[in-house]
UniProtKB/TrEMBL annotation:
Protein name stated in the entry: Probable hydrolase
InterPro entries linked to this entry: MBL_Glyoxalase_II, Metallo-B-lactamas, RibonucZ/Hydroxyglut_hydro
Pfam families linked to this entry: Lactamase_B
Organism: Bradyrhizobium cosmicum
MF annotations from Gene Ontology: hydrolase activity; metal ion binding
Keyword annotations: Hydrolase, Metal-binding, Zinc
Co-factor requirement: Zn(2+)
Residues covered by the Metallo-beta-lactamase domain: 22-202
Length: 222
């Protein structure tokens, strides 16, 4: 579990790697109110609940970047435990949320449940937690309903599996399209600005500027 928290900032965040996929379940909160959101609870719900307790935040929402099992496997269980709404992803990923149990079985993951979010998200929507507000960008390609959460004031985004440090999301899963993914990155993420830092679904985060310069999928070397 890694924590990022600047006393001068309006927000804090911790990353809780979950399941064998080492997916970056992320808890983000506002300061000083400590109102929090859990992004992509992919599983290991007891571990997520312990991180919430240790951080001392009050979780009020669950946000989902997309519907793949490693990002949503614990969503229904966590919703029941915390009694909070689930927001996201885009409705184009409904077919994935309708098949969580089947998807989990293929990877030996048990305990997941099929579910629907309390709110589907679309391009141009806004979500908030405490005093923090995030714009929604619909970025299909990795999955049809992938969304990105972007906070203009903090110059920060959570991009799920759309973009990684040095790579991009895989597109060989149902509904995936490499050309669509690259278009999403170039038309939705790169225009946010080189100074925007991001957390992604797996591995270390990066910045838009770093990826614009060095990511082979963006520079055209791959």
């Amino acid at each position: 579990m890694s924590e990022q928290n600047d006393p001068q900032s309006k927000a804090g965040a911790i990353i809780v790697p979950v399941t064998l996929f080492e997916q970056n379940c992320t808890i983000i909160w506002d300061e000083p109110g400590k109102k929090a959101v859990v992004i992509d609870p992919g599983g290991d719900v007891p571990k997520i609940l312990e991180a919430i307790k240790q951080t001392g935040v009050t979780v009020e929402k669950i946000w989902l970047t997309h519907g793949h099992i490693d990002h949503v496997g614990g969503a229904a269980e966590l919703r029941d435990a915390l009694k909070v709404p689930i927001e996201g992803p885009h409705a184009a990923d409904k077919f994935l949320l309708d098949n969580v149990v089947e998807s989990g079985a293929r990877f030996g993951m048990t305990g997941g449940r099929n579910f629907a979010p309390d709110r589907w998200l679309e391009e141009g929507d806004t979500v908030s937690i405490g005093d923090l507000s995030f714009d929604i960008l619909h970025c299909p390609g990795h999955s049809p309903g992938s969304v990105v959460f972007f906070n203009k004031d903090l110059r920060f985004a959570h991009v799920g599996d759309v973009l990684f440090a040095g790579s991009v999301g895989r597109t060989d899963l149902p509904g995936g399209s490499h050309s669509t993914l690259i278009n999403s990155i170039k038309t939705k993420l790169l225009p946010l600005g080189d100074d925007v830092g991001f957390i992604c679904g797996h591995g270390a985060g990066s910045s838009i500027g770093q990826e614009r310069m060095t990511n082979p999928f963006i520079t055209g070397e791959m």
